[in-house]
Design goal:
The chain has helices at 8-11, 46-49, 58-65, 129-132, 159-185, 199-210, 227-243, 254-265, 303-313, 339-344, 361-374, 387-402, 410-414, 432-445, 452-456, 481-491; strands at residues 30-34, 39-42, 69-77, 86-94, 98-106, 112-116, 137-141, 191-197, 217-221, 418-424, 459-464, 476-478, 497-504, 507-515, 521-523, 535-537. The chain has 538 residues and is of the alpha/beta class. The strands form four sheets. The protein has a nine-stranded mixed β-sheet with strand order 3-4-5-7-6-8-9-10-11, with helices on both faces.
């Protein structure tokens, strides 16, 4: 093990809070402290909202952002059918290397700020469309390097880049760009929100846990909060396929697996619709798909392939309380980025010394983590890696930086912060039960001297049927969590359910309520089984 436990607190001393802007020469007007956190409430100047005072050009934006930030471009973007007219600013914040960013400032501002997280090992900014379309001042960061989100070579012999990626880059960008938006419009944003999935969900949790006054509300979708354990688990699954080639399952086999899973489990919620509302209610038996002795084909499973599916669903290292979890077969493993894409890939993987893993995406992420972040050695033979032997040492060295495991979130909740977690039941990247584990830990740990019910009013979890990792799948893949979070923060309307829509060929097919955990949508009966109103959460 070459990496020592990092001192992320020392690395973050440069970070600033938005409250420090009051009194600076930014054209801001601040009222007396208000709200649970005592934050200064901005007195907004309506004349600035439709006519931003700062010019959308490199030189004036450079003055707003200051000497530690390099503005590469600033351009006025005309309105399109999808997006309003806005000023798009790109550049880099300097902190032990350039931290790239993108900032979108709509001409007609909704007086709010939205930061968008990004997953994998980042290396690029997230598209700003989601926020700009709603009138948000919207920002994102590449977390300090430019590369593919599945490539961890940025970490080689570069502990500063590792520190930037896992924490410092996100906080610096979030604070600096919120300051820039306030200066541009002449008013502090009335609300600040975070929205991110996977690694972006982990980043949002880091913000709420370590910097509780940065955002009023956080959407953490399929968050990779138990990051070190997750990446080690992905490496272990890759080892299973590489070390036992007979366990590889071809893509053509998964439609038959889906059909069998749906045959056994689809109707448990009261209606047959291709959506399994809670996969825990049915553990499908795949023995009907077993090949005859001595026979193998893309339409049946060999004993070795059956074993591979069992190891993914019930891995030997996923003991209760271990923080490791298995995955669920939910009838949505074929579509988009399903199990073939995540676990097995289009062909059996091979291993070449020093070359990236050439198999499925999960294996690529896990092996990159082991080689570059754990061992800092591109030639490390990751096939030697073992959770049982190596896992504890990895956690001691890295978890304090990589993991969002500070589950006493009392400081964030006490100042009125709201946390909305969602996770797809058909996620083949991050085990769905990892978010349930996180939610239960937050409720258990976030007391802070007040009643547990207070925490229950500050965090919600939504498990989404038929949803893959962050998007895609054959279930309820279209829903609006940002509006739910806005209503919760701004109107104290805690979401008990969110309407989700099943889409096929770009057209809505049916709707269902996605219920706040632990409730599940159940069919009431009647003549409208495709309508969310025919279901109730119980």
């Amino acid at each position: 093990m070459r990496l020592k436990p990092p001192d992320w607190r020392a690395a973050s001393q440069r970070l600033r809070t938005l409250g420090a802007m009051c009194g600076l020469a930014l054209g801001l007007v601040c009222a007396a402290p208000a709200g649970m956190g005592g934050a200064a409430e901005p007195v907004l100047r309506p004349e600035l909202l439709a006519a931003p005072p700062a010019a959308c050009a490199v030189e004036p934006m450079q003055r707003l952002l200051g000497p530690d930030v390099h503005v590469a471009a600033a351009a006025a973007i005309p309105a399109t059918a999808a997006l309003p007219s806005h000023c798009l600013v790109t550049g880099a914040i300097q902190h032990d290397g350039p931290i790239g960013f993108a900032l979108g400032l709509p001409d007609h501002w909704n007086r709010k700020y939205l930061f968008l997280g990004i997953g994998g090992f980042s290396g690029k900014t997230w598209p700003l469309d989601e926020g700009l379309a709603r009138g948000y001042a919207t920002a994102s960061t590449d977390t300090g390097h430019v590369d593919s989100p599945s490539d961890a070579r940025f970490a080689l012999n570069n502990p500063a880049a590792v520190r930037n990626h896992f924490e410092v880059a996100v906080e610096l960008a979030a604070v600096d760009l919120k300051s820039a938006a306030a200066a541009y419009y002449g008013a502090i944003p009335r609300h600040a929100y975070w929205d991110g999935c996977s690694g972006g969900g982990r980043q949002g949790l880091i913000e709420a846990q370590r910097f509780p006054d940065a955002f009023d509300g956080v959407i953490a979708a399929a968050p990779a909060w138990n990051y070190a354990k997750l990446l080690m688990m992905l490496a272990e699954n890759a080892n299973m396929v590489v070390n036992s080639p007979a366990k590889w399952i071809p893509p053509e086999m998964f439609p038959a697996i889906d059909r069998e899973v749906l045959r056994q489990c689809d109707g448990i919620d009261g209606v047959v619709d291709g959506i399994i509302m809670d996969p825990r209610a049915c553990r499908p038996d795949l023995r009907r798909l077993r090949c005859a002795p001595g026979h193998a084909s893309p339409t049946c499973l060999t004993a070795a392939q059956m074993s591979a599916l069992d190891e993914i669903r019930r891995p030997p290292f996923a003991r209760p309380g271990s923080g490791y979890h298995g995955y669920f077969l939910s009838g949505a493993e074929t579509v988009d980025s399903g199990w073939s894409f995540r676990f097995f890939g289009p062909r059996p993987p091979t291993v070449r010394r020093g070359a990236p893993f050439d198999g499925a995406l999960n294996g690529r992420l896990g092996t990159e983590f082991v080689r570059y972040i754990v061992h800092n050695d591109p030639n490390y033979d990751w096939r030697r890696f073992s959770i049982a032997r190596d896992g504890p040492a990895v956690e001691r060295a890295l978890a304090s930086l990589t993991d969002a495991s500070q589950t006493d979130m009392s400081p964030f909740f006490r100042r009125g912060g709201k946390l909305l977690i969602w996770h797809g039941w058909s996620d083949g990247a991050i085990p769905p039960e990892m978010s349930i584990d996180l939610y239960q830990r937050i409720l258990r740990d976030s007391h802070g001297g007040w009643l547990p019910a207070t925490a229950e009013q500050s965090v919600r979890l939504f498990m989404v049927p038929g949803m893959h990792h962050c998007d895609g799948g054959s279930g309820l893949t279209r829903f609006d969590t940002l509006t739910a979070l806005e209503n919760w923060v701004e109107r104290s309307a805690a979401p008990e359910s969110i309407v989700g829509t099943q889409v096929a060929a770009g057209r809505p097919m049916r709707s269902r309520p996605i219920c706040a955990y632990p409730k599940v949508a159940r069919f009431r009966g009647g003549e409208r089984p495709d309508d969310a109103e025919s279901f109730e959460c119980r």
